[in-house]
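hey m, so remember when u said the tokens were messed up on ur end? i reran from scratch. heres the input so u can diff it against urs
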Amino acid sequence: QVQLVESGGGLVQPGGSLRLSCAASGLTFSRFAMRWYRQAPGKERELVAGISSDGGSTNYGDSVKGRFTISRDNGLNTESLQMNSLKHEETAVYYCNTVRLRTMYWGQGTQVTVSS
């Protein structure tokens, strides 16, 4: 079955950087677009960034444009999210996501805490 496993979360100071990774299995990774979502306490889950199956096209939420970069390595079945200039309000659980055969798949999430 499809499995997505996130890693790389942690505690970072405002203005700092983190790099999240997502390892995928159970699917032909290079055929599927991938996305990162986040959910802060008491808020709805929101789309952070997406990348096409071949990595040639990306899209970002307005609040992260210019600071976050999504990428993927189809040879390693992984996607990444480089997050720079992090803000306190970006404290959230970050989730890796894909859609296969009309079914959405999620990882378990990785906690990112931005605090001084």
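this time it looks ok to me. The chain has a mean pLDDT of 97. if urs says something different then somethings off w ur setup not the seq
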